[in-house]
Amino acid sequence: MNPLRILAKRALMGLVTAWAVLTTIFALFTLTEDWVLSGQIGVARFAGENDPDALAEIRAEYFAARGLDRPLTEVYVDWLGNMVTLDWGSSMSTGEPVFPLVMEAAARTAAYVVPAIGLAVVCGVSIGMFAALYPESRVGSGGVATAYLLFALPGFWLGGMLFSLTLDGRLDRSPLLFDHLLPIGLTFTALLGGYVSYSRAHSREYATAEFVSLVRAKGASGYRVAAHVVRNAAIPFFSMLFTEAIGLLVLAAFVTEVLFGIEGFGLLLLRAVADRDLPVLLGGTIVVIAVGVIGTIVQDLAYGYLDPRVEMG
């Protein structure tokens, strides 16, 4: 299939997915009980305000401030159009423009997620392939065992305990350590075990293949042999890599940022849900969908490059 057709097809699927997801989120937030409004009503009643007219005025002011005092169909069409044109309006809780707010938070998350993925891929593929090509090697077995040990360690708990030392003054909160090195390290260890396991399993399928034996018989170096193996094992591994990366976005964006107080994408979305800040939540959803669509396009194009025999259609 022509790469342009792949791009068009995936873009169309992305638009349909975006519409379905945004519509579902809009319905969930506008057709269900508003816990923020319920909290304001509860505070007013606790203060002794039980006049129905006064409570109705609180509701009216709340909906007016959030632009929900119009028919829902009108609000839906306006907000959906704003999502498409990237005019995401302002945050309902802070009043800041949503688009730069979401982009800055996504950039802060990418600052530790991308390096962690890169390190995990390089180390995981190297360890897994070495263990597959040299199964009797103690170095390979030790590398696999170390990767599994790092995965099994309660990294987030250890990181949380280290961070707690900053709260009572026993340790200075270094931005380099808690905003970059620790998040990268925790994300790296969470991914490494899976990458080692997958790369070793898929490399084993080709480590004893006839073409690999032929390459070795011709006196090729270990690097050359590994290059032949990784080229054939790359497609299933690449599929796993993309899936793990999407799953990592949820893990890193929510757990890591809440743990270390990083003002990133996950913490932004959590606050948007708590505050029912619909513009921020919809804008964040657009970013997640865009990452998924772009990743799928790259994955499809990479299949044809890694193995020209693959029919991308």
From TrEMBL:
Q: Keyword annotations for this protein?
A: Cell membrane, Membrane, Transmembrane, Transmembrane helix, Transport
Q: How does it sit in the membrane?
A: Multi-pass membrane protein
Subcellular localization:
Cell membrane
Answer whether the UniProt record assigns the keyword Calcium to this protein.
no
User: What positions does the domain ABC transmembrane type-1 occupy?
Assistant: 124-311
Q: Which Pfam families match?
A: BPD_transp_1
Keyword Transmembrane assigned to the entry: answer is: yes
SUPFAM superfamilies given in the database record: MetI-like
An individual GO BP term: transmembrane transport
- Give a Gene Ontology cellular component term annotated to this protein: plasma membrane
List membrane-spanning regions: 12-31, 110-134, 146-165, 177-198, 241-262, 282-306
Name under which the protein is recorded: Peptide/nickel transport system permease protein
Name the lineage. Archaea, Methanobacteriati, Methanobacteriota, Stenosarchaea group, Halobacteria
